[in-house]
Amino acid sequence: MAQTVLHKAATRGFADHGWLKSHHTFSFANYYNPERINFGALRVLNDDSVDGGRGFGEHPHDNMEIISIPLEGDLEHRDSMDNVAVIKNGDIQVMSAGTGIYHSEYNKAANSQVKFLQIWVFPNKRNVEPRYDQLTLQAEDRHNKLQQVLSPNPDDAGVWIHQDAWFNLGEFDKGITTEYKMHKPGQGVYVFVLKGDVNVNNVLLNTRDGLGIWDTDQFSITAETDAEFLLMEVPMEF
Prior knowledge:
Largest sheet: 7 strands, mixed
GO molecular function: metal ion binding
Domain Pirin N-terminal: 12-121
Number of domains: 2
Keywords: Iron, Metal-binding
Domain Quercetin 2,3-dioxygenase C-terminal cupin: 149-234
Family: Belongs to the pirin family.
């Protein structure tokens, strides 16, 4: 019998720093909820909005897989590996922090917001050599079907990380249904709705709701309206 945990959008943690407004699905910074530390290897899911010209100054990370998915605007990235890049809606960025990395992320525009998802996944290997990658995705590849955007395999579709994780994006018209099959035993999927209403195994989710599902080999997902969503499959024990 599938197990589920539902996180409605309004129950997320929220931080208002003026220039930054951030919703936290899991405990982060000053938001702490002992029942919402992580979902398996998925540790952080932040829904961030950054004012024009502002951003996160240089700061360190280690031993974490960090994924950014821009939803609106342009995000400028700099790091201690001499990478300088801009990621925008339609792109995905990944960093393996490994032995240690410094980076900064800024809104490249002066007068408009940048909105993006910041996602952290615990790695399955510690102290790896830090690495950076980004990829521009093709929107038509997720229209009424699942588009793999991340996996453990450098030769597979999307970016890759040091973990048995698979991420998929979907942009479905109303009424479209698909089945999702777990890649391995002991995995779970966290469904995050970017826009619209979706039904996952008879649980209705609205915009920015999240649902974790595990102890099952597969599940169905139906768009009750035109909808966009992100599926994050991760090990439940790691």
